[in-house]
Amino acid sequence: MKRLTLLVLTISCLYFGCGEEYSDKPQESSRILAEPYPNDSPYTPDSRKLEEFPIAHRPYQSFTSGIRRFGAARGGGSRLHAAADLYSSVGNAVRAVSSGIITDYYYFYSGTYAAVIEHTMANGSKRVVRYGEISGFANGFAVGSRVHGGDTFARIGKLNCCSPMLHFEYFEGTLSGPLTTNAGPFRRRSDLLNPNQLLLRLYDEAGY
Ligand SMILES: [Zn+2]
User: Fold this and answer.
1) What's the CA-to-centroid distance between 72 and ligand 1, angstroms?
2) Which residues, in sequence order, are CB contacts of 69 under 8 Å at separation 6+?
3) How many CA atoms lie within 13 A of 81 on its CB side?
4) Which domains does the chain have, with CATH numbers?
5) pLDDT one-digit tens code per residue, 118-142
6) Which stretch of 37-46, 73-82, 130-139, 163-172 has the lowest confidence by average pLDDT?
C-alpha cells in the first residue's frame, strides 16, 4: 500500500511538477477546495470578501515563472504570453476576482472558452479580466450577470493541447474594442496589464 502511494505521488509530481517555489509550504495547504466557502465558514453576505484569488486552491506550478508567466514566448517567439496561467484541474471553480458584470463569452483556444468581466476592484478602479480556457459558466451565470468577488461563475476547461489551467488576462479597461489584436508584442489591446502584482497579492491573502 505504501509503495502504491509513493508510485501515485511520483507520477503526480512528474505530471504536475512538485510546486517549485511553493514547496516550503505545509503539505496540507495544497488540498483542493471544491467550493470557495468551506463548511466551517458558512457564507453570509457580510462575511464576503471583496476580492478573491481566481482559483480555489494553490496553482500546481508557479504562475510567475516558466512558460506560465506573463511575457513568456509564444508562437515560436513571434509573440508574448498575454496572461498568467494558473494550473488547475478540469471542473475546478473559477472565481471572480472582484465585483463586476460578465460582458462577453466565446470560443477561445483548443476546445475551451473565455469569459470577459468588467470589474470594479476594492479600491474603486475599473479593470477588465478575460478568464480563458474555461469549460463554460457555472449554474446561474451568463453574459449580463452581475458577480461579486469570490463568486464561482465558471469551471476550468479541458484543453486538447495541454494541462488544464486558468489563463488570466488583465486589462486596464480604459479602451474599448477586441482584446485580441494584431498589434504589439502581445497581440493584445494596448491597455493590457501585467497581472502578477494583483495575483500575488490575492494569492497571499488567500493563504494557501
Ligand atoms: Zn495562457
Assistant:
1) 9
2) 62, 63, 81, 84, 85, 196
3) 20
4) 48-206 (2.70.70.10)
5) 999 999 999 999 999 999 999 999 9
6) 37-46
**Higher model confidence: residue 7 or residue 52?**
52
Ligand 1 center to residue 55 CA distance, Å?
15
**186 alpha carbon – ligand 1 mean position (Å):** 12
CA of 163 to the centre of ligand 1 (A): 11
- CA distances, 141 to each of 32, 45, 71, 121, 181 (Å): 23, 18, 31, 20, 27
- The one-letter code for the residue type at 169 is E
CA of 52 to the centre of ligand 1 (A): 20
14 C-alpha to ligand 1 centroid (Å): 21
pTM: 0.78
> Are 86 and 55 contacting, i.e. CB atoms less than 8 angstroms apart?
yes
Q: Are 171 and 194 in contact (CB under 8 A)?
A: no
pLDDT of 20 above 80: no
Which pLDDT value is given to residue 49? Answer: 74
Q: How far is the CA of 46 from the centre of ligand 1 (A)?
A: 34
Residue type, 64: T
